[in-house]
Amino acid sequence: MTLSRRSAVMAILLLSALASCVNQNRPPTQQDNICAILDQRPGWLNDLERTQRQWGVHPADVMAIIWKESSFRARARTRRTYSLGSIPSGYISSAFGFSQALDGTWEWYQDETNSRGARRQSFRDAVDFIGWYMNQSLQRNNIALDDAENQYLAYHEGHTGYARGSYRLKSWLPPVARQVQRQADLYRSQLPYCR
User: Fold this and answer.
1) Second label for 160, Cα 20 to 30 Å away, from 20, 25, 140, 185?
2) Helical axes 123-141 vs 43-55, angle rounded to 10°
């Protein structure tokens, strides 16, 4: 093989690898179908099963939280804030990644699970975080692991906020939590039929 032909083959391989990386960073297209999601991201099923073994949480409940929090976007952030009307000055909160975990909550998870290298934009780490957090909600607020609606309220408001009923002061939040429950129920009904 000549040098120019070898260079052309290497360039094609490099472009293919780059295209594959870009495609993996895009969120799944059919977000109401867990089978379609897992067809697009086959490695995610292993991560969900690992989290289920570790924390006892159903993959459908974990996926419903990610669906609502980030729409399966690895680098999701909250809306930007602006000063003087048009100068970007930051974000509404430090929520980031698939799980939309806040900086402090993510650090708590890293400390508690000895996972200092965990990253919020990693699906595997995000689902492990959600499983851990749902277990914290079970221990602190006695919320069943299969109660996606109340698990989501505690996830959104924090354990102390949930215990105080802060979600009752936000008329928009309980309907969102019911959406999460419906999505979890939908995913749970679809999962047995996935390849």
Assistant:
1) 185
2) 20
